Every structure is written in C-alpha cells, then in structure tokens.
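Running log. JK asked me to keep both predictions on one page so they can be read side by side. First protein, sequence followed by its tokens:
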Amino acid sequence: MAITVDMVKILRERTGAGVLDCRNALEEVDGDFDEAAKLLKKRGLAVAAKKAEREANEGLVEAYIHGGGKLGVLVELNCETDFVARTEDFQELAHDIAMQVAGAGAKYLTPEDIPRDVLERERQRQFEEIGAGKSEEIVQKILDGRLRKYYQEVCLLEQPFIKDEETTVRDLMTSKIAKLGENIKVRRFARFELGAE
C-alpha cells in the first residue's frame, strides 16, 4: 500500500511521533493505523526504558492556580538539558501534569511512594469489605484489583490522563520521552487547597 502524506499526518496527530517514525510504522503494517499506533507505542516504551537511567537535572517548576485562587499546584518536571526544558512540548507537558494534580488530586507519585502503614490500612479496609465465604485465591484476586484501582486514585503516574482517559500519565510521559529524546521525570509536586489539610 502506498503511504500518503495525509496518512502520516493523521498518525502523527494521533500519536505525537515524528514524521519519519510514522511513515516507517505505516509502511511496516501496510497502512493499518491501529497497528501502526501500537508499534509506535511499543517503540516509545523501548526508547523510554533506555533513557530511564540517564540523569535529569534540568527542567522547570510549573505553577497552576485554579478556582480564583482557591486551589494551587506546583510541579517540578525534570529533563536532561535546558534546551528541551525550553521547548513548547516540555512546557505543555509540565502544564498538563500540573492540571492533572489539580483535577485528580494525586497524593503520591507511584505506588512505591505510598507509606507502608497507609497501604496496609487500605489493604485491611478492602479486605474487610470483600467479606468472608470466598476462597483465598478469589479474595486475593479481588484485593489485587481493588488495590490497582486505589493506585489509580492516589498515584499520579497511575492515573488516567484528564485530557484522554484511555492514556495514563505514565504513558503520556513515555510518549514525550520518545518524542523529545530525553529522560523526563516528575521530581515532586504539591497541591494546595484553601481550607484543606
């Protein structure tokens, strides 16, 4: 199948990948957009994994104020170079993550950041809700599913992205790492809500 400029443009808008990457992916899968998007995502994950160990000491602090000053967020987003930190894509990512924190109220970055006592209380609460009368294997499966849902509620990187519920914040970060060619990390964030503890 002949790959047209319009086909490349559509895939690029859909995935955010580079022009050449989109063309190559479409050629490999004979113009199938869904398969090309899957291929680009797989390649993006591989790129992100290679870059994960690299130092990310540059970046910016993004501030987001919402609700007439009743809610504010600060996010420190790091990358490898000042050059990337000044790009529109990186700044847009920082803004999107700040909006995510404001809108979805994450408390932790990853499940590993949840304090052990907090996680144990949640595990115990969920266990009590499941109730008796089920086999240990069934209880464990239900508990694992409920904990995954809990992680999506309280962990920033596990949350569905507010602008696209099909994508997690982690997937969004991975796609930007692949696109910008540098390691990118959320170093820390804080959410301030008037009157809240």
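And the second, directly underneath as requested:
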Amino acid sequence: MTQVPSPPPRKSSFGASMKAVFWSFFGVRKRRDYESDAANLNPVHVILAALVGVAIFIGVLIMVVKFAVSQ
C-alpha cells in the first residue's frame, strides 16, 4: 500500500496575500512571483485579501464621485 505524501504547509502571511492581490489588480506580476505565490499563499488569505481590496477600491471610487459631484 503506497502512502500519498501530504502537501507541505503553506508558509505566508496575510500581508503577502495583500501584496499579491494588490499587484493582481494592476495585472502586473512576474512569472517567478506568480509561481511562488501559487506554491506558498494560503487560499483563504487570498480570498480575504481580495475582499478587503475590493472594499477599499469601491470606497475610493465613491469618495472620488462624491468629490466630483460636489464641485
């Protein structure tokens, strides 16, 4: 009977996930960094970071529109 090795634990912080999501919003990421992210980032952290990033983006858009309309 062959044992299947378990994948190594992912070693990354929430800050690293935020950085990866930030760069993905701009669509620029080096292939080497992308591969490192895919191997090391925690998927739950990436989802949470994306939600935080979207909330910040929407908040900035709302502030810009309110500023433009008030002028």
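Observation for JK regarding the second prediction: The mean pLDDT is 85.
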